[in-house]
Design a protein that fits this description.
By secondary structure, the chain is mainly β. The chain contains 2 helices and 7 strands.
Length: about 110
């Protein structure tokens, strides 16, 4: 299996190309890294291929906020220049500047 470079990066705001939600990327898997049950729950006609980057998003729609796992092929750059209203953005990101979130520095040992 060959790996592709991810099109989007941490802190970028994206939107789903089919469904009405947007979010900020906080993690990237180079290929599908969820359960087969999760994938099988997606209707076959819109089920993404596994050999592409998948993104973890702090997501929002008109009704709620949540964490989403989305294939690269289903994402578009959100050019609204508006922050995401997810309450956990401040846990992972320090600020929203120029249409993009800045990651908080991590302290590890």
């Amino acid at each position: 299996m060959s790996l592709r470079l991810a099109k989007f990066g941490l802190g970028q705001v994206v939107r789903h190309r089919i469904f009405s939600f947007r979010g900020v990327i906080f993690d990237v898997d180079p290929v599908f890294a969820n359960t087969e049950e999760w994938l099988a729950a997606i209707p076959e006609d819109v089920r993404p291929e596994k050999d592409q980057p998948f993104y973890h998003l702090l997501a929002e729609n008109d009704e709620s906020t949540y964490v989403a796992y989305v294939s690269e092929g289903n994402l578009l750059l959100d050019d609204s220049d508006q922050p995401v209203g997810h309450p956990h953005t401040s846990l992972l990101f320090s600020e929203f500047r120029g249409g993009r979130y800045q990651m908080r520095p991590r302290i590890t040992h």
